[in-house]
Write a structure and sequence with these properties.
5 strands; binds zinc ion
């Protein structure tokens, strides 16, 4: 288990990667505002801390805001679908 460099705070701007949304076959990162911090996420099998943070997000869509509850962090490989990650420069495949 490795812990991320820093814990998110309410009001932080992060990226959210939707499980179902893609544009021209590419996954789309959305800006999201951390609206609540639940604390360290648990591994679903072991119930041990998973080295990620569990937060509520307000995801910024082009024409609306969408609330997502209990979204878990995944910074590996620029993020996995259904998870949030810190904004970073993305590889061309995801840009
Ligand atoms: Zn992203």
């Amino acid at each position: 288990m490795t812990w991320p460099a820093r814990a998110p705070l309410v009001g932080d701007m992060v990226h959210y990667l939707d499980q179902h949304e893609s544009i021209a076959g590419k996954r789309v990162c959305r800006a999201a505002i951390v609206s609540q911090l639940h604390g360290p996420a648990e591994d679903s099998l072991t119930r041990e801390p998973a080295g990620a943070w569990d937060v509520d997000l307000m995801v910024v869509m082009p024409r609306k805001l969408v609330a997502k509850e209990h979204v878990v962090q995944d910074d590996t490989g620029h993020g996995s679908s259904g998870f949030w990650h810190w904004p970073t420069e993305h590889p061309p495949a995801l840009a």
